[in-house]
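About this split. The held-out portion is used to measure sequence recovery: a designer receives only the structure tokens and must propose an amino acid at every position. Recovery is the fraction of positions where the proposal matches the reference. Here is one held-out target exactly as it appears in the evaluation file.
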């Protein structure tokens, strides 16, 4: 089964065609990230406007890569048929992110997908963006890496807007265990980067500075940042205190005229360690409590190399199999949307699909 996935929840505009939930036939991602670098973060209105510009060309490109030429997106008038359009684009169904995300951005993808489903008379599957992040683990370049079944599993989703821990007993069998009480892990990276004068998106910027610091610089700054809620018996997260702790350090260093490149490197390193320690610690604790077979990671923050390394090191003497998505599939793309729709195939009438910016887990 070939599904055309459409993703527009934030600042990426993406379309992909995936076969049987695992084989990527095409995957196109356009991003308005460069524009947001100038403003140090996303302005929702700007992101939505960029979605409008990119979406049709991105869908066309995804279809062209697989089928040679793009189908016309305009309805053909036909006096013989009440149906407005008959051309078969070569796909079996559509899938679209309905939430969570920025309302303006979501609406562009949802309304476009609905229109295409109507024109092409194809089934359409509404997809939860967060659940979809986990399906990066089922995709190329290592198809079927999760066979035999990895369930039950603990799933950690860490993205720009969310940090959630779930018990996954099977496809569509998710139990939410906890999430962030304030800032998400990605948001913490982004906000701390801003405090340190590093460019958006903060995750990759902090990772780069932390790596530079780790190899070589003299460590004579005594900075220790908190690991919020790490040792408490809850599966919730809280990262806003960490951001405040960094702000305090920055202000102090500025007063002492010591806020230089080395200090930025040290703070980036410490902040990254703190965020990762909490994510790894809580995930392993959940795995122990629920006696699962594996741990599945998803979301933009899981692109972080240090996080991957710390998970591997911490899991070495444990019985859990770790599933980490390919780096380019960790951040937003549409292949994960199509894959999620295949493994959770519940098509609905295009008339009933609506964008839901605060969609949670079912
Ligand atoms: O999943 P994603 O692409 O979009 C959302 O659904 O939010 O995640 C974006 C987030 C941003 O906050 C970004 O700073 C973070 O993922 N991120 C990283 C890395 N790459 C992206 N965080 C830490 N290390 C990275 N290498
Ligand atoms: Zn995402």
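Reference sequence for scoring:
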């Amino acid at each position: 089964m070939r599904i055309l996935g459409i993703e527009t929840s934030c600042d990426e505009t993406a379309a992909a065609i995936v076969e049987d939930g695992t084989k990527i036939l095409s995957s196109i991602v356009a991003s308005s990230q460069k524009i947001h670098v100038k403003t140090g973060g996303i302005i929702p209105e700007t992101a939505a406007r960029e979605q409008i510009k990119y979406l049709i060309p991105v869908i066309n490109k995804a279809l062209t890569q697989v089928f040679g030429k793009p189908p016309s997106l305009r309805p053909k008038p036909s006096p013989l048929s009440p149906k407005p359009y008959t051309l078969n684009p070569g796909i079996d169904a559509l899938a679209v992110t309905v939430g969570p995300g920025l309302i303006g951005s979501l609406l562009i993808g949802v309304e476009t997908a609905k229109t295409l489903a109507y024109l092409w008379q194809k089934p359409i599957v509404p997809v939860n963006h967060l659940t979809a992040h986990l399906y990066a683990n089922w995709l190329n370049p290592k198809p079927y890496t999760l066979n035999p079944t990895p369930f039950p599993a603990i799933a950690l989703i860490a993205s720009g807007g969310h940090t959630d821990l779930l018990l996954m007993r099977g496809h569509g069998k998710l139990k939410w265990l906890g999430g962030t009480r304030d800032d998400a892990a990605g948001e913490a990276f982004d906000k701390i980067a801003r405090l340190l004068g590093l460019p958006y998106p903060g995750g990759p910027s902090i990772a780069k500075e932390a790596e530079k610091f780790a190899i070589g610089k003299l460590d004579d700054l005594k900075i220790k940042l908190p690991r919020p809620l790490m040792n408490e018996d809850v599966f919730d997260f809280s990262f806003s205190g960490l951001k405040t702790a960094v702000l305090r350090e920055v202000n102090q260093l500025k007063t002492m005229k010591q806020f230089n490149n080395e200090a930025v490197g040290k703070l980036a390193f410490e902040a990254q360690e703190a965020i990762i320690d909490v994510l790894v610690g809580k995930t392993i604790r959940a795995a122990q409590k629920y006696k699962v077979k594996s741990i599945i990671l998803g979301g933009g923050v899981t692109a972080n190399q240090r996080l991957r390394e710390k998970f591997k090191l911490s899991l070495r003497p444990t019985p859990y199999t770790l599933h980490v998505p390919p780096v380019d599939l960790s951040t937003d793309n549409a292949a994960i949307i199509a894959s999620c729709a295949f493994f959770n195939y519940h098509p609905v009438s295009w008339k009933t699909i609506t964008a839901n910016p605060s969609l949670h887990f079912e």
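Annotator remark: DSSP finds eleven helices and ten strands in the chain.
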